[in-house]
Amino acid sequence: MTDHSQSPDTQPSKHAGSLLSPSPGTIKRNRAEARFKGYGIAAIAVGLLMLLVLVFTIVSKGVGAYTQTFITLDVELLESKLDKKGNRNLDDIKKVTTFGYAPLIKNAFATKLEELGLETDLKAKDQAKIVSKSAAAQLREYVIANPDMIGKTVTFKFLTNSRVDGYMKGRVSRESIAKDKSISVAQLDFVDQLVAAGVIKKTFNLDFILGADASDQRPEAAGMGVSMVGSLFMMLVVLALALPIGVAASIYLEEFAPQNWLTDIIEVNISNLAAVPSIVFGILGLAVFINYMHLPTSAPLVGGLVLTLMTLPTIIISTRASLKSVPPSIRDAALGVGASKMQSVFHHVLPLAAPGILTGTIIGLAQALGETAPLLLIGMVGFIASNAPDSLSSGLLSPNSAMPAQIYEWAKRADPAFYERAWGGIIILLVFLVTMNTVAVILRRRFERRW
Amino acid sequence: MNDMTFVERTVDTRQTKIAAKNVQVYYGETHAIKDVNVEIEDKTVTAFIGPSGCGKSTFLRCLNRMNDTIDICRVQGDILLDGEDIYDKRVDPVQLRAKVGMVFQKPNPFPKSIYDNVAYGPRIHGLAKNKAELDEIVEKSLRRGAIWDEVKDRLDAPGTGLSGGQQQRLCIARAVATEPEVLLMDEPCSALDPIATAQVEELIDDLRQRYSVVIVTHSMQQAARVSQKTAFFHLGNLVEFGETGQIFTNPEDPRTESYITGRIG
């Protein structure tokens, strides 16, 4: 029995030493842990910093697009210019082009200067140039809508030229316009006089949010509104197609389909489709929907169809995940009381998975809302200054743009005034995306059940 | 085994409710149930006992074709309910499951109100013509589930908010609500504390008045307390089947004896 003294039990313990003084191994381990925590905090800090920089840049550059410089003028709608025959015949009034309205604006400046007692060396033609090119059109639209007002004096609020607007916002200065042919130092002095007199003012511009795009020459008149409507119609198409198709496909694959090589292949392909670059869907849409099916180019319907293809994998994957998360015991319980497979899915599994499905759908929609690349290929990018559509079918079929495409289009144009509008547009797009994601989070929090 | 008390039981010749003949079950390549023959009587509690993985739950799930939901599971042989083969091609498993109800190991009430939990089965089978009839069925079922007094004032409360034992009795009430003829119970007390277990066991003894009850259990004491007939499964074989009293006091097979005395399993 002397062997007992050599048994392993009697060897000194590896954990010898006081508990109060940590062993070298413990110290090393704790240091590694502290380092790892440090890395994590640093990573999050870098991320937050980037986010702050991003938000700050976007807001500081884009907020200017929401205010616009306006000039208030009293325009006498001269009968001699607008309706020579004096019979108020609308057809005759329409024959007067916007060029015919230019003298009225010049006259309005002259009256205004006289009224304020201001003096300037600027020629009448150059005075009128500080007003936007859209002013004459604005006058003409008003006259055509109200022919009775001809001969009277009406107060109008015109947009100013984008250079004047830039000057008011500090983007344009006397030094920076040295080589600029569209505005002169004398004109800026004139603007200063009018600002002092309260004729030119910078105010909030609702037309940027609700209006349509404008041509290269008139950045001051461009707005996001119509492209927002285009995006809305595309989202309607995506929601109407991707949600039912996606949910039906996921329910079949998750609950009914047998497990075999075919369903395996489908599953792998759906996962792969989710990672396909969106421009590939764009060229597919171009080939199938436009070249083969001859659907109209630039139409939100086509855009919606392409984005549906792009969103489907996202919706299917998230729906399957939320169906999977419903515990099998619920299915057993339903089957156990004699429910059919379909009853168990529709009465129990689907309602429980609904918040997850909705969240996935909203995230998919938000993704589609911000997508630009496929729209490039089906012609939804470019100068599309249509008016807001008046019916569902024209909304779906008439050419339109989409929010991200509109932003891309502005960013591409030469005039720096458009650059500011691109940033402003990004703010609108981000507000939409943040709202949708918030709704998704709220839905999930609100309706999520725990077992 | 001396601490077990056996209830005096009158064992008369009752009608056979379910008869299994030469049943084989395969999970893919695995032969899970080997040639099982058993006759389950009406208005009797039959217990399936045996070590983990012996196939007792698998066999139980064959009795209402719950194994159909598992793709790789194949069942051979005949299982007759009242003389009709439940694996016949013409049998709709949904109709079968309305006749052969099931209670699961883990209480699994639907995340709905207590009332809706019980009313669900009658609703989908069209057992009630109107709300009053449905109310009646729900009350009757909850009474049979021995839970009526505890929940009658809060039928609109979620079923998932009850305690584990209450949930299990709710599940039994839910199973009873569809007027089944056979109740299958897969270890109904394994997730419950001793007091809840005692309540459920008492309930099972009541249920025997109306239904043929088949219960799978890990606890031999439980089998001895609630059942009249006991089947002992081991490695996929039905080793011994007979009167509970006889199985526990005088087993014929040495494997049964080893198991009930705690030497295997």
Short structural description:
The complex is a heterodimer of chains A (451) and B (265). By secondary structure, chain A is mostly helical.
List keywords for this structure.
heterodimer; A: 451 residues; mainly alpha; MetI-like fold; 2 domains; three-stranded antiparallel beta sheet; 19 helices; B: 265 residues; alpha/beta; Rossmann fold; four-stranded antiparallel beta sheet; 10 helices; 10 strands
Describe the fold and architecture.
- Chain A has two domains: 136 residues, no CATH class; 223 residues, MetI-like (MetI-like fold).
- Chain A contains 19 helices and three strands.
- The longest helix of chain A is centred in the first third of the chain and has 39 residues.
- Chain B has a single domain, classed as Rossmann fold.
- Chain B has ten helices and ten strands.
- In chain B, the strands form two sheets. In chain B, strands 6-7-8-3-9-10 form a six-stranded mixed sheet, sandwiched between helices. A four-stranded antiparallel sheet of chain B has the order 2-1-4-5, covered by helices on one side.
- In chain B, a hairpin with a 2-residue loop joins strand 1 and strand 2.
- The mean pLDDT of chain B is 87.
Helix content of chain B: 25-40%
- The termini of chain B sit apart by 16 Å
Secondary-structure content class of chain B: alpha/beta
Structural class of chain A: mainly alpha
The low-pLDDT segments of chain B are none
Determine and state the CATH class of the largest domain in chain A: Mainly Alpha
Mean pLDDT of chain B: 87
Could you outline the blueprint of secondary structure elements for this entry?
The complex is a heterodimer of chains A (451) and B (265).
Chain A: H1 24-62, E1 67-76, H2 79-82, H3 90-95, H4 102-116, H5 124-128, H6 134-145, E2 153-159, H7 162-169, H8 185-197, E3 200-204, H9 206-210, H10 225-256, H11 261-274, H12 278-292, H13 300-324, H14 328-336, H15 341-369, H16 373-377, H17 392-397, H18 403-412, H19 416-447
Antiparallel strand pairs in A: 1-2, 1-3
Helix pairs in contact in A: 1-19, 10-13, 10-15, 11-13, 12-13, 13-15, 14-15, 15-19, 18-19
Chain B: E1 16-27, E2 30-41, E3 45-49, H1 56-62, E4 73-81, E5 84-85, H2 93-99, E6 100-103, H3 114-125, H4 131-144, H5 148-151, H6 164-177, E7 182-186, H7 194-207, E8 212-216, H8 220-226, E9 229-234, E10 237-243, H9 244-249, H10 254-260
Parallel strand pairs in B: 3-8, 3-9, 6-7, 7-8
Antiparallel strand pairs in B: 1-2, 1-4, 4-5, 9-10
Helix pairs in contact in B: 3-4, 3-6, 4-6, 6-7
